Structures are given as structure tokens and as C-alpha cells.
Amino acid sequence: MRMNQETPEEAVHRGRALVLADLAACDAAGPAEVSALESAMEHRRWWCAQWPQGAPYLPGLLAQDVQDALLDAHGAAGRWPVCPFCEDHHALDLEPELSDAPHWVCGARGRTVAPLGGLDRAGEADGAP
Q1: Distance (Å, rounded) from C-alpha 52 to C-alpha 49?
Q2: Is residue 1 in some structural domain?
Q3: Does some domain include residue 93?
Q4: What angle in degrees, to the nearest 10, is found between the helix axes of 8-25 and 31-50?
């Protein structure tokens, strides 16, 4: 193993920190959301044990798992994270779907909003919509 290569457990914890930061940035880090994140972490630990080379992709997969869990649990009201730029209530997409550096994108405008873990700074670079 290379010195700078992240272990699967380190990737899980890095992913937890990034997703939790984005949940908090959206005022959505309540018990149900954190529980969804913890559940996703357990599942992805197993997944990474089966495919250790997938560790770099864990943070993005955790975010997608939380998105899916919240939508399943709450329907349209569970959309997370909601686009900060559009009037209509739609969730941001995480792109690319399998990446070691995913970012949140507004699918309606085709606009990059923030890197995973950076929703608290969404729009700072260009001043918003």
C-alpha cells in the first residue's frame, strides 16, 4: 500500500465528515438524516471490504445513499440538498456518479454548485445566481 493511499475506513470517515458538513450547511443534520448517514456507512463498509479499490469513491457514494434514503423516507419533502439557485424545489445531483472528487450540480441549469463537503460555501466564487 502506498503511503498516501487512504484505507477503506479512512475513506468512510472522510465521507462521513463531508456528507455531515453538507447536511449541516442545509440545516438538515437532524437525527433522521444522521441515522441515514450511519446506515449508509455500515453498508459501504461491507461494500468496500468486497472492493477495496473503491475506497476513493466512498464519500460520493455515501452522499448518494443519503439522498436516496431521505427521498425514500420523506418523498419529495426529503429532497436533499435543495438547489440554492432555482425557484423550483429540486435536489442537486452529485457528479460524476463514481468519482474521487464529486461535486454538487444543478441539473436544471447545468451549473456546478460546490464540491462534496462544500455546500456551506455554495455560490461564493461567483456571487450566486
Answers
A1: 6
A2: no
A3: yes
A4: 160
**108: which 3 cell numbers?**
436544471
Mean pLDDT calculated for residue range 89-108: 94
Range of the structural domain that residue 18 is part of = 8-121
**Residue 91 CA, distance from chain mean position:** 12
Question: What per-residue confidence (pLDDT) applies to 2?
Answer: 43
Instruction: Report the C-alpha gap between 73 and 58 in whole angstroms.
Output: 22
Q: How confident is the model at residue 29 (pLDDT cuts 50, 70, 90)?
A: very high
Reduce the DSSP state of residue 103 to 3 states and report it. strand
Beta bridge partners of 82: 91
Helices and strands: H and E segment counts in the chain: 3, 3
C-alpha grid cell, residue 35: 441515522
pTM listed for this prediction: 0.89
Q: What are the tens digits of pLDDT across the range 47-93?
A: 988 998 999 999 999 999 999 999 999 988 889 999 999 998 899 99
Residue 61 forms part of a structural domain = yes
Residue 2 lies in a domain: no
Number of domains in the chain: 1
